[in-house]
């Protein structure tokens, strides 16, 4: 019984490993679509390369041809994106490539958001403590004729 259970676990592990390995093995068309959607057309339209819908766009067709040529040469996704970035500038990338100094483009906005949130909380807490410590609440003195007259005048002026 134990041998059968070990055998089933071993088969399940092998199947899981094969599935993980096969996730990266897609057809060339899916790789073309993936890379084409990670770049921006440089005709100043600001659209994704494969979705540039300008009639007779002078830039998208040559870029798509270059993408096909790079894929045919067998380069990795990162090397192809780096080639396009070297030729057209970093503006061609729809998102920065993860790694190196480009990580700042991913980390900085999140870090600024959290630091601003924490800073705002600290400032609000300091202001709250300052007003609570500095405030001396004076109880209303009953029978103060000047204060009663003022309250009555305020009530009369604010009623409809």
Ranges where pLDDT stays below 50 over 5 or more residues in a row are none
N→C terminal distance = 89 Å
Q: Name the CATH architecture of the largest domain.
A: Orthogonal Bundle
- State the helix count: 6
- Please identify the top-level CATH class of the largest domain: Mainly Alpha
Mean pLDDT: 81
Give Rg in angstroms.
33 Å
Give the percentage of residues in beta strands.
under 5%
> What percent of residues adopt helix (DSSP H or I)?
55-70%
Q: Mind telling me the CATH superfamily name of the largest domain? A: Cytochrome C biogenesis protein
DSSP strand tally = 0
Provide the domain count.
Answer: 2
In one word, what is the shape? elongated
Q: What fold name goes in the CATH topology slot of the largest domain?
A: Helicase, Ruva Protein, domain 3
The largest pleated sheet is described as:
none
SSE run = HHHHHH
List the main descriptive attributes of the protein structure presented here.
mainly alpha, 2 domains, Helicase, Ruva Protein, domain 3, 160 residues, 6 helices, 64% helix
Task: Tell me what the structure shows.
The chain is 64% helix and 0% strand. It has two domains: 2-97, Orthogonal Bundle (Helicase, Ruva Protein, domain 3), CATH 1.10.8; 104-158, no CATH class. The chain has helices spanning 2-23, 28-36, 60-73, 77-88, 103-134, 145-158. The mean pLDDT is 81. It starts with a helix and ends with a helix. The chain has 160 residues and is mostly helical. This is Cytochrome c-type biogenesis protein. Pfam families: CcmH (PF03918).
């Amino acid at each position: 019984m134990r041998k059968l259970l070990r055998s089933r676990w071993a088969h399940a592990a092998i199947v899981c490993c094969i599935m993980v390995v096969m996730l990266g093995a897609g057809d060339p068309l899916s790789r073309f679509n993936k890379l084409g959607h990670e770049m921006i057309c440089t005709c100043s339209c600001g659209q994704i390369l494969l979705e540039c819908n300008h009639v007779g766009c002078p830039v998208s067709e040559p870029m798509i041809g270059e993408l096909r040529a790079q894929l045919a040469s067998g380069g990795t996704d990162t090397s192809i994106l780096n080639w396009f970035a070297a030729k057209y500038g970093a503006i061609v990338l729809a998102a920065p490539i993860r790694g190196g100094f480009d990580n700042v483009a991913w980390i900085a906005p999140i870090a600024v958001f959290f630091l601003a949130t924490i800073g705002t909380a600290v400032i609000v807490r300091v202001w709250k403590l300052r007003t609570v410590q500095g405030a001396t609440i004076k109880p209303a003195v009953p029978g103060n004729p000047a204060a009663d007259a003022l309250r009555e005048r305020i009530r009369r002026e604010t009623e409809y």
